[in-house]
Amino acid sequence: MEVINTTISEEDIAFDKEHLWHPYTSLTQPLPVYPVESAEGVRIHLTDGRTLIDGMASWWSVIHGYNHPKLNQAVVNQTQKMAHVMFGGLTHQPAIDLGKKLVNLTPKGLEAVFLCDSGSISVEVAMKMAIQYQHALGKQNRSKFLTLKKGYHGDTSGAMSVCDPVSGMHHLFRDFMPQHFFMEAPERGFEETLAAGEIEDIEMFFELHAKNAAAFILEPIVQGAGGMRFYAPQYLKEIRRLCSMHGLLLIADEIATGFGRTGKLFAVEHADILPDILCVGKALTGGYMTLAATICTRNVADTICNGEAGVIMHGPTFMGNPLACAVANASLDLLQHSNWQQNITSIEVVLKTELSKAKAYPLVKDVRVLGAIGVIETTVPVNVQETQAFLVNRGVWIRPFRNLLYIMPSYAMCKEDLEHVCRMMVEVVQQEHCFNKV
Hints:
Strand content: 15-25%
CATH superfamily of the largest domain: Type I PLP-dependent aspartate aminotransferase-like (Major domain)
CATH class of the largest domain: Alpha Beta
Radius of gyration: 22 Å
Strand order of the largest sheet: 4-12-11-10-7-5-6
Number of domains: 2
Number of helices: 13
Order of helices and strands: HEEEHHHEHEHEHEEEHEEEHHHEEHEEH
CATH topology of the largest domain: Aspartate Aminotransferase, domain 2
CATH architecture of the largest domain: 3-Layer(aba) Sandwich
């Protein structure tokens, strides 16, 4: 691809700095931003002529790489028909095709598909489904949720209420949000087994709180923005068992882990369980457009539809957007027809080999890898501004947070590019100026 090098004017950069809020940033003390001209494959081209290898896949969504010709063509083809039409009272082929794909790809038993705007909204819909389900069963008192500490489920109000209430990003809103019940975060790592006492603790948590709860919501196997923590599949098995025993629904938030990221198509497959409701997003369109889905079992759908309202009580304006559905169909086709499992295995091998070298440095607390996720946890917080400048000068883009340097690359990233990104991450932990002393 030919890269046309242009420059965003200083006036426009000043406008951005003064008027545009970037995610989790301040307008009074803004962090630097790097103007982008274009992107292709795993490379982001800045307007000043520099090129960066993207280790973030734009927050884990661009699994096939940027500017993919098949995804581009899907967008072009659909715009020639219609970019949008309301989903209320109308339907269209891209939505039908996407529904078929999602029912076919997700664990057997998930059959009813709600197409929504974003990952946070898919969580909102899942929570509303759970409340409507319990209400339809005559259990109006079941209005709370069980969840895990260290979890993250999004930035809208319902989703915020089931994020970690203390160490999460939303503690400022605690008095505004409904109060739910938080189980201790899993401590056993991915390959570990729970002790009898730990299972008893989980059982006691259910005994205390399940009677007031509609569902248990969690991120299966990987707690993402809450700390990039990987935990034992046995937790999922036990929570699934106890949800069934106590009449709770199990909501699996796979917005970050869905579509192959952990080495399985969906992270719940590591425990061989079926959630009652599954949330997907991020990689659904290959990073092209915002789109998500909430998928539930036939039992959940029928129970809701036989309840007082008789319908699912949610309906966004852009629900089932044809353009987003069309590119999602193309993205899922690419995934299904690629050797994605081998790609993830190859990525995992490189991540383990290269990131393990960081363990030799005193600022490093832990290194962990699962599938196409690699994490360096440090003993002190990362200085985001200094770290990003250091990496950009070495041709790498990652976005650290708190005390975490992590990578979730495109599945299309080659070995050489991945090795370079990992080696630069290891270089970061040798730079004291890249960290905030505490």
